[in-house]
Amino acid sequence: MRIFKQLNGFFARLPKTKAFGTTASNTSLPPIWALRDQSFDRLPGCLSAAQRNNFATMPEMLDSQPDLDLYVPHPRVRGMTTLDRAAFTKQVVLPALKVKKDALQKVVKSLKGVLLQRPGLKRIVDDLEGEDERLILLDPHKIPAGSSLAEAQQEVLKSFSVSPEVLSYNLELTYDNFKVEEVLQAVLPEGQEVTTAFSRIGHIAHLNLRDHQLPYKHLIGQVIIDKNPGLTCAVNKTNIIESAYRNFQMEVLAGEEANMITKVKEHYITYEFDFSKVYWNPRLCTEHARVVGLLKPGDFLFDVFAGVGPFAVPAAKRNCVVFANDLNPESYRWLQHNCKLNKVDRKVQTFNMDGRDFLEGPVRQTLIQQLALKDRKHALHIVMNLPAMAIEFLDAFRHLLAGGTGSADLPTVHCYGFSKHDDPVRDVQERAEARLGTSLEGCCSVELVRNVAPHKEMMCISFRVPAEVLYKEPPSGAGVDHQPQEPASKRPRSSEESPEEKGKEAL
């Protein structure tokens, strides 16, 4: 036994290298080596002969054999709140075949079903022992360490003059080799929901984290940036959108904190804006395209809550006449900027007014003119995209054109609203009818735009304003003055400096 102890000490002092070795039997080794293997098998905490290869092939491991699951980071990262990328490093042993360069493509094609399929990992690597040979890595779940290929596969390899002997290749996995969901699933407590979804607004990732994710918010933000090229900032919404300006408070989780001015493209149109001061939701791109697709050249579009222009700019691109309004001064600035950026500023009249004042002022004046035309061929559309309260503005259409006789082609309204009702279609329609003071049964359509949250839907109700609503005389003694007396502050602020003039450095 003394000689075995001395041998063990000798082997322990040998350097550990990341090479490869055979998994074949040791029957050809000298007897003393076989006895050494048996002695090792009896020692607690040591690898068995089937698990262990040539002593020069094993990576340095102090705890136990490596985890062969390529999709799970090291368990030590569980509960981490500050990202430590080095902690994700782990060693795995992969089965491999040694193949001559000229036979590589034939072998890869023939053994496609058992090759390593892990994205981001090369399955053909250099052989440190020969320049004319390469190692083809196999899937450890299909070809476990210590096993061999099926007889049919071995025969194929022999036909290519390739040895069917399965070798072991020590591979180091790092943080870069794991996907977002794999990193977060390994870090967050087991059993908790892992949300990897976010909205991308140019270089900014916008997250809506749940309460149980908040202790890990900075780590989550950094992981999102690391795993998505082009992102330099991650933010989390800290309150719901309740302000009249439709912006929300946000917290920077990781990355650049100062640069909130971003650029996005939607349906080949470019928009620029300060994301911290205006509203933008990339999930509405399909809805923007749907409504704009209803317009024809020459049509009029009145965008009551225009934001930075996702309806107004593409409508102007279709050669429509556009009146775009937003109460938020920042949205108004960027609306003007985006009109110039996309070269439609001469087709869009911009306003910085309250939505109701916009309807009762510029919209009313233009409707009077257009509805008086006998041979008018273009349609009139009014978009009201403020889902938290747009339906409450519908009563502005009551008596808007008092004294008129009506027209067969009255304006079509597209009004957005949220609903938590079990029947959101009926809920939105009934609320719209209550504000209009008439029934819309059979003369409106209600579309589901998107699911905002569990039991909360964003809907769009579209209808042609009924003549009895638009032209109905107000009750006697109501004292409503329908003559447009627009104060100076309500007129278009077209002379205000554009973002290029005010903030060239910011852009």
Describe the structure.
- This protein is an alpha/beta fold and 507 residues long.
- Helix content is 24%, strand content 21%.
- It has helices at 2-13, 31-42, 104-110, 151-159, 180-187, 217-227, 285-292, 312-317, 329-341, 355-371, 424-436, 467-470, 499-502, and strands at residues 20-22, 90-100, 124-126, 133-137, 167-173, 199-201, 204-207, 233-237, 250-255, 261-266, 269-274, 300-303, 321-325, 348-351, 380-384, 412-419, 444-453, 456-464.
- The chain has a seven-stranded mixed β-sheet with strand order 14-13-12-15-16-18-17, with helices on both faces.
- A hairpin with a 2-residue loop joins strand 10 and strand 11.
- The termini are far apart.
- Mean pLDDT is 81; it is low at 1-5, 7-67 and 477-507.
Q: If you compute it from the alpha carbons, what radius of gyration comes out, rounded to the nearest whole angstrom? A: 34 Å
With helices defined by DSSP (H or I, 4 residues minimum), what is the helix count? 13
Mean pLDDT: 81
Strand content: 15-25%
